[in-house]
Amino acid sequence: MNTSAAANTKIPAIGILGGTFNPIHFGHLRMAQELADALKLAQVRFIPAANPPHKDMLTISAQQRAEMVQLAIADNHRFVLDKRELLRVGASYSIDTLQSLRDELGATASITLFMGSDAFSKFDTWHRWQEIIQLCHIALVQRPQLRGHDTALSKTLETFLHNHYSENPDDIHELPAGIVTMRQVTALDISSTALRKALKSNDSVRYLMPGNVIDYIQSNQLYC
Ligand code: ATP
Ligand code: MG
Predict the structure, then answer these.
(1) How many domains is the chain partitioned into structurally?
(2) pLDDT tens per residue, range 105-140
(3) Residue 221 resides in a domain
(4) Is the separation of the CB atoms in 185 and 36 below 8 Å?
(5) What confidence tens digit (pLDDT) does each residue in 135-160 have?
(6) Which of 16, 30, 192 to mutate for ligand 1's pocket (most ligand atoms within 8 Å of CB)?
């Protein structure tokens, strides 16, 4: 009996998790794991942003954020670090990243972009956002309410959701792109913002992120 999830899929299917990962934490890792399982994905690529259009200046280098991702995913054979945004010059727009993935993986591969509810609530401000759904599916997860963040959807996004929504996660294996699905994952109220704050105040971040990433932060004296 072949128990590989990938063996059941009709076309190669991969997941994508973009983020600043400043630093990576169990919220990212757990949602990626649960979506990979629920959507039967052979691989999840973690794509750290180099120069995110929606973020203020970062205090640590993109290379260091990528190294922390690499450490965090090292023991998971389905998780892969993808550094394409770090290698590109200029602003990293998701549309360009997805186009380059599409060029690499081919027109028929199923590509699913993972997004937390906070990211999705701003999706209609992304560069050429309406074209993104032609390049990938989107899997949404509810993020525990972030204090001070409004995750209410605009009318435009509600219509977008309505037009592309599918309840059945298997649908993403029928098409390369075009479907939005929502999955429930274990709610972990962890954010990089809270971790940076804790590290700055010398509070422990144990049990919120992988131990080898904590070791890396300490030996490189990051976030202090
Ligand atoms: P920051 O506080 O610096 O914004 P963050 O914790 O939000 O960091 P990001 O790198 O901005 O992490 O997030 C990348 C992606 O992961 C986004 O789609 C975000 O919604 C999702 N995500 C982050 N943390 C969680 C979590 N705890 N649960 C589910 N999804 C998450
Ligand atoms: Mg964030």
Answers:
(1) 1
(2) 999 999 999 999 999 999 999 999 999 999 999 999
(3) no
(4) no
(5) 999 999 999 876 666 778 999 999 99
(6) 192
* Selection from 185, 218, 207, 202 nearest residue 68 by Cα: 218
The answer to whether position 145 is within a domain reads yes
Residue 142 token pair: 């509810």
CB neighbour list of residue 84: distance below 8 Å, 6 or more residues apart: 47, 97, 100, 101
Q: How many CA atoms lie within 13 A of 165 on its CB side?
A: 11
- The parent domain of residue 147 ranges over 10-187
CATH number at residue 107: 3.40.50.620
**Distances from the Cα of 138 to the Cα of 84, 98, 113, 179, angstroms:** 20, 12, 5, 6
Q: Is residue 202 part of a domain?
A: no
Structural domain includes residue 128: yes
pTM of the model: 0.93
Give the ligand 1 atom nearest the CA of 194: 2
Distance from residue 56's CA to the centre of ligand 2 (Å): 11
- Cα-based angle 60, 64, 67 (whole degrees, multiple of 5): 155
